[in-house]
Structure formats: structure tokens, C-alpha cells
Design goal:
mainly alpha; Serine Threonine Protein Phosphatase 5, Tetratricopeptide repeat
Amino acid sequence: MRDRKMEYFMRFTPIVLSLAIAAGTMASAGQGQRPDDQIDPRSAALVQQAQAQTAAGRYDEATDLLETALALDPRNRSAYIALGRLAQAQRLPGKAVRYYADALRMEPNDVNALAGQGEAYVQRGAVERARRNLERVQTLCRAPCPQAQQLAAMIQRGPPAEVLAAQRPDQGAPTTPPAPRPN
């Protein structure tokens, strides 16, 4: 009987210790984190200052403020969305798409990030991707919302002319007529 108890003890002790260590690690990791809805107020204030700088056309100052806001609190989705809008204003749709994707990684159903990303897709010439974003925005809103209406209008207008021109296949280089052969 004693041997049997010792056998159970030896078999299950490593498992129990492993589970205890794992539980202790998870509990301590969760204590140092704040919920997602508690964004650092200093970070939120910097986003508001950056929006004012963007409206004034001071893009470099706005970018600095937004990057500082993200350094203070990397979970600030509104900073990523503002960086996306800023990139669009500077005609950098690829950069804007990446910023919106960062915001969507934190909250996949953020209507503002989805709509902004859709607008950047149109600016980039990826109208089909923009339509998929519009469908998601419409599904999430359920009723007409300004984000869906604005994205639909942008899709209707289509990509900028220079993007359309760049997407057209070349008609070929002008050919020179062959030189006449000497007789």
C-alpha cells in the first residue's frame, strides 16, 4: 500500500508542480496590465493636439505627437487611426493601410479603422478590397452610418487619376520604322 502511494506521488508531483507554476505565472502577468478601455490620458491628449496640428497642415509636428502618444500607450487605437488619416493626407496610402491594420489588430470591428483602411485602399487603387471593407462596415453599423456613406462615396468616385494611369498596361514603346535596305 505504501509503495502504491509513493508511486502516485512520484507520478503526479511533476504535473502538479507544472500546473502550479503555470497558474502562478498567468496570475502575475495579468496583475500588471490595465484593461484596454483605460488609455493613458496623456496619450489621449497628445492625439487631440495632433489632430489640431493636422488640421493646420503641420504634418511633421502631428506625426511627432502621435508617435509620442503611442510611446506613452501603445494600445491607443485612436493614435493609429490618426496616423492613418495623416498618411492619407500626405498621399501615402500604403502607410495608411498599415496604420489602420495596427488599429484593427487591437479591435477587428473598429468601424473608423475599417472605413479609413477602405478609403486608403481606394486611394491606392484597390477598389475590391475597399468594397470588402464597406461590406464589413455596413454589417457592423446595421443602420446607415457616416463611415459607410463616406466610404461608399469614395468608392463611387474611384481611385485618383494618376493611380489609374499607373495601373494601365503600357501600350508599348513607339516603334521606329525599319531602315530601308540598300539595293
